[in-house]
Amino acid sequence: MARTSLMRALQRLAWEHRAASQLGIGVEELREREEMPGVPRREFLKRAGAVGAAAAAAGPLALARPARAAAAPRIAIVGGGIAGLAAALTLQDRGVYADVYESSGRVGGRMHSDWQEFGTGFWANKQQA
To answer: pTM higher than 0.70 for the full model?
Structure first.
């Protein structure tokens, strides 16, 4: 940061020449463009805020499309473990239909019993059915 007015003037001059060469214009034209009246930042923000407030007041109703009425909610439960089955039962008790999807083809998750008999009424570890 420059501490003297001479150094600030030299830095400003260097900046003007660099900016003018990047834009492909002369330094005088760059200075003229900078002197052109524009909207100050504060005024721009005030105007943008007023437009935003007007849009917020009318926007939701003006821009919204009419919603399509659904006959019934569609609910999918992924996982047929004890939590998924309990959720489906709770929904069914309240009259809401839910599809339960299980990738293994067997519901119950880790909580299951093997009902396949080996031989005559016994399981593999010789417990009686």
So the answer is: no
